[in-house]
Amino acid sequence: MEEIGPEENYVTRDWKSAGVEAESAFYTQALLQLTDEYCKKRRCLECRIGCKLISLGKILKSENELMLEP
Length: 70
Known about the structure:
The chain has helices at residues 10-17, 25-39, 48-55. It is mainly α. The model has no long low-confidence stretch (mean pLDDT 85).
């Protein structure tokens, strides 16, 4: 998977706009997993990347744009 180029989808575009760019399909899959396990569940403070983005003052998505689990 490290030899295959990264996927292009809304998740990877969101990460790219936050300053995190996937280098290969391997990294794309990792970002998708992080999104499902942390971002969608609002577990930002449990994620090193989430904490870093927050500490940098990054404006991510507004609450109504997020696909959050109940």
